Amino acid sequence: MKPQTPQSSKMAIPEQSSKELAEAFTKTLSLASRSVHADDYINNHQAVAPPLHVSTTFRYSRDPEKLQPWNNHNPNTPHDSHIYSRDSAPNTTRFEALLTSILNAPAISYSSGLAAFHALVVFLNPKRVAIGGGYHGCHGVLHILHKLNNLQQLDLTSPSDLALLQKGDIVHVETPLNPTGEARDLAYYRQLATEKGCYLTVDATFAPPPLLDPFKWGADIVMHSGTKYFGGHSDMLAGVLAVRPDRGDWVQGLKEERLHLGSVMGSLEGWLGVRSLRTLELRVRRQSENTQRLVEWLDGEKAKRGVVGEVVDKVVHASLQEEAKVEGSWLKEQMPEGYGPVFAIWMKEEVVAKKLPSKLHLFHHATSLGGVESLIEWRAMSDQKCDKRLLRVSIGVEGWEDLRDDLIQGFEALKAEK
Ligand SMILES: Cc1ncc(COP(=O)(O)O)c(C=O)c1O
């Protein structure tokens, strides 16, 4: 399948994002420039840095003639008029304006990635959701919805389950996949969803821009745990849904439902989010390059007779998938800018997997991913069902050679204890 291009070059700076910028430049601005400027139109203060507004409520007009129910439009701040922060607020509005530009589609924020997934399923209201492996929390959300309305969870990898899909159901694909960082072929799932009359929703948390644009491959809704790369500093929880531009007023519908679900992001998080998105492209490119180098090195060393090969059983990452070696493969086309910054290591024994994090100095032993600091997690700590020899690694922006040397000394310390 050929990648689908946005309807017009202006699409990359969506209307609600920045008319002024779109008019000033005849070309589409780069992702890096849009990350810094796509919310400028909202700024009605002289301050260059965005203020943090913590108010939950906003004054109505003092002129009784101007009072209109559920409308607090202020002509002096046309893009920054609010009523109550469960509906909208200044910092999250700027965060959403940036995301709308960065993701090439109208975007809405939530209090966490799982809140976003919950909102997505509630909005589309399917009878069945086909979902593969990946982040176990999303399965947990479906489990709760099953309790409420008997929603059925189908296995994306089972032909007999897929045969049960019907019009209006959801095909939900996570790519790259948690915890291994392997990628999935979105064109294949788009075709499957189209044949069955289903929606295609994509959890692209592991490959933020510029690494992947699932809309090019026909996604109806793209979801991100904004806690990861959008936040990027391990200090905020957020979730994001972006809607394919030709889906009309879906974002308005999601916004109306969010008002009642109450799963909005906090203002502090919105402020942190804006600050973080400014450097998204820099961070993600660096993290992706670091990862590619480390994975290549680790995988190469594993085959040799040395300390790595003695303790490591296998390394898994999109860059090691067969299709990554084939020019023109779906993987190369889907991720031309590089692969995600998370990969998995299977150690030879459970005991060494459990110990390795304690031997490292630059990797924090912690769950989550996407921050500037590298993390390693003995995955059994937060996913009881996974193989106990599995370590999930999230690469940060440190120098990759330092991370490599830290791993070498960690492997050597393990060997010395044997
Ligand atoms: C792929 C993926 N999707 C969704 C989530 C949930 O995001 P959050 O923790 O922000 O709710 C995670 C969290 O790790 C994740 O890895």
From TrEMBL:
Keywords linked to the UniProt accession: Pyridoxal phosphate
Pfam families: Cys_Met_Meta_PP
InterPro entries (alphabetical): Cys/Met-Metab_PyrdxlP-dep_enz, Cys_met_metab_PP, PyrdxlP-dep_Trfase, PyrdxlP-dep_Trfase_major, PyrdxlP-dep_Trfase_small
Keyword Transmembrane helix included in the entry's annotation: no
Protein's UniProt keywords contain rRNA-binding: no
Cofactor(s) for this UniProt protein: pyridoxal 5'-phosphate
UniProt GO MF annotations: carbon-sulfur lyase activity; pyridoxal phosphate binding
Top-rank lineage group of the source organism: Eukaryota
Sites bearing N6-(pyridoxal phosphate)lysine, chain numbering: 228
An individual GO BP term: transsulfuration
GO CC field: cytoplasm
Xref: PANTHER family: CYSTATHIONINE GAMMA-SYNTHASE (AFU_ORTHOLOGUE AFUA_7G01590) (PTHR11808:SF35), TRANS-SULFURATION ENZYME FAMILY MEMBER (PTHR11808)
Family as reported in the entry's similarity comment: Belongs to the trans-sulfuration enzymes family.
Protein name: Cys/Met metabolism PLP-dependent enzyme-domain-containing protein
Phylogenetic classification of the source organism: Eukaryota, Fungi, Dikarya, Ascomycota, Pezizomycotina
